[in-house]
Design a protein that fits this description.
By secondary structure, the chain is α/β, with parallel strands linked by helices. The protein is built from twelve helices and 15 strands. It has one domain: TIM Barrel (Alpha-Beta Barrel). The protein is globular. The structure holds N-carbamoyl-L-aspartate and zinc ion (ZN) (2 copies). The site of one zinc ion has 5 residues, from loops.
Length: 335
């Protein structure tokens, strides 16, 4: 069996910077035609000059692969002038809103959602998408569900604003997705496959630890069914989020799961297992292209049911990253 995908897109990706970016960027750029690049560097990418320079470093690191970085700015109540400057860069995609402290490198995020209205109005008027890490500061298993009223409120107050609920992990978020025309969502590979049990039900698995935390079997099953069915508002966003091994295998494990190099192969295996290969194109590209009218570079990738073993670690440029399912064999690979 095999499948050829047109212009695969990763709608939520962390490429980091410096040596780490040099190691991980090709892992995505080899198979994806483009990706939405998250701005949570230290310091975060808040202005157009930083965004332009970061895009340049990413293109350098892509090492000749035809790969479009769809750049985001870290939400900071940007002014009309700042948004106009961003829009002048053809690689600019949208603003990413992090509640302060919700996840890795988000300390500079939004402290008071009540103060975001002016920028959100401008974004609605200018057609700039809003991407949100939607978690409260409540109990860890409830953080996404707690945040759903915020999504509902924003979707209602700004009906023309395209809002993406990033990396959804609950059946409740899927329900909300269907309730508002201007809500869209990304979902990761790991949240289609694992539950909290895989992370913490036995020996603790730091390489499966991310935010939002993996949830219940019923949530995982609902997300998987939605993806397999080619749900038109659900897009693949790996949230591939590399951390050096010493930040994961330690006391105080950083949140983030690294999946970029084999994400498409694992998705093909998953969709094939559930006789849903026909819907993979929509999930990894078609939905995103339609929702955002994207025109990524022409690129196809063929996946075949030839097994591959996920490496124990990815090494280079003085970096070492342990991926999800290190050392496991999966049934599909890139041809
Ligand atoms: N998902 C994660 O657990 N971590 C991401 C940040 C994020 O997407 O929330 C990271 O940058 O490491
Ligand atoms: Zn996030
Ligand atoms: Zn992320």
């Amino acid at each position: 069996m095999q499948i050829t995908l047109d212009t695969p897109l990763d709608m939520h990706l962390h490429l980091r910077d410096g040596e780490m970016a040099r190691l991980v960027t090709p892992c995505s750029a080899r198979t994806f035609a483009g990706a939405v690049i998250m701005p949570n560097l230290v310091p975060p990418v808040t202005d157009s000059a930083a965004m332009r320079d970061y895009a340049e470093r990413i293109l350098q690191a892509a090492d000749g692969c035809d790969f479009r970085p769809y750049m985001t700015l870290f939400f900071k109540n940007q002014t009309r002038q700042e948004l106009e400057t961003a829009l002048a860069n053809p690689l600019f995609f949208g603003l990413k809103l992090y509640p302060a402290g919700a996840t890795t490198n988000s300390e500079g995020g939004v402290k008071n959602l009540g103060e975001t209205g002016t920028t959100l109005h401008l974004m609605e008027e200018m057609g700039i998408p809003l991407l949100i890490h939607g978690e409260s500061h409540g109990f860890v298993m409830d953080r996404e569900q707690d945040f759903l009223p915020v999504y509902r409120n924003l979707a209602t107050r700004f009906p023309k604003l395209k809002i993406s609920m990033e990396h959804i992990t609950t059946a409740a978020a899927l329900e909300l997705l269907d309730a508002h025309e201007n809500l869209h969502a990304t979902v990761t590979l790991q949240h289609l496959l694992i539950t909290l049990d895989d992370l913490a039900g036995g020996m603790l698995k730091p390489h499966l630890f991310c935010k939002p935390i993996a949830k219940r079997p019923a949530d995982r099953d609902a997300l998987l069914q939605a993806a397999l069915s080619g749900h038109p508002k659900l897009m693949f966003g790996s949230d591939s989020a590399p951390h050096p091994i010493h930040k994961k295998e330690c006391c105080g494990c950083a949140a983030g799961v690294f999946t970029a190099p084999f994400a498409l192969a694992k998705l093909a295996e998953t969709f094939a297992t559930h006789q849903s290969l026909d819907n993979l194109q929509a999930f990894v590209s078609g939905n995103a292209r339609r929702i955002y009218a994207l025109t990524p570079p022409d690129k196809t990738v063929t996946l075949v049911d030839t097994p591959m073993t996920i490496p124990a670690a990815y090494r280079g440029y003085g970096q070492e990253i342990v991926p999800m399912d290190a050392g496991h064999t999966i049934g599909w690979s890139v041809a």
